[in-house]
């Protein structure tokens, strides 16, 4: 009997193809693999070549064509040259299914070839008709390398979103802190002659609410907008003007003040955790980090309250 080790290799390459196709999404299909091709282009090429050889096998098994027909090989090269015009335009999400169905049909034909035909092909320039794994694996490797490069590039370009976790951690700490406060606690000074705990909590609630309002106004303007910057001088003036209001908040029921400061924190944290991708997060982090990382402001005052 003829050696049919290629059958297992064909099956393994088809399994590799199937596993790779399960990961396909529109963005992955559009990944550049070089030479003007995308992942979709490479998959289309695999499918085309397998379909081409399926037709050749069907004709060959029917006795209508022989592997040494040089005119067919010339036609194959002409077809590939012609298809170069179309490959860059291939993008269909249905391509993976076509590639798998075609590969399965071809591998079945090759596996069922009679021994005499296998012997005639093996060890000749036409053995590629049997060893379909070679061409298939070549392009699977090409696709996998491109996807790895694409993932690395995306990771390098991705903004640092660690502020989302820091905001959440500071909110959790604030929630624990406010859970056990009583009326007397709100009037306790955070430092001698300084703010009270109620004053500090009112201050936190205002600035988180104000930042949420600035973000909502910016996002309403459309693509790429960011909150307006406020100078430290203006912020200090606001702090001074609102101090009596914050102190008055200390006379409220502790539950009401706690609910307000937590609701304000939850609102701004929710906004910055779900910003659209066109927001220049990296630029904001570099220039005005507190617009995103609310823990920077929040933890200063949480520390004061805990100490008091």
Overall description:
The protein has 14 helices and two strands. The chain has two domains: 5-157, dinb family like domain (Four Helix Bundle (Hemerythrin (Met), subunit A)); 163-307, dinb family like domain (Four Helix Bundle (Hemerythrin (Met), subunit A), Up-down Bundle). By secondary structure, the chain is mainly α. The longest helix has 26 residues, at 132-157. The model has no long low-confidence stretch (mean pLDDT 86). It starts with a helix and ends with a helix.
CATH H-level superfamily of the largest domain: dinb family like domain
Q: How would you classify the helix and strand content by structural class?
A: mainly alpha
Classify the fold: give the CATH topology of the largest domain: Four Helix Bundle (Hemerythrin (Met), subunit A)
Number of domains: 2
Which oligomeric form is depicted?
single chain
Which segments are poorly predicted (pLDDT under 50) over 5 or more consecutive residues? none
In the CATH hierarchy, what is the class of the largest domain? Answer: Mainly Alpha
* Secondary-structure element series: HHEEHHHHHHHHHHHH
Spatial strand sequence of the major β-sheet: 1-2
The tally of beta strands, per DSSP, is 2
Features:
single chain, 308 residues, mainly alpha, Four Helix Bundle (Hemerythrin (Met), subunit A), two-stranded antiparallel ribbon
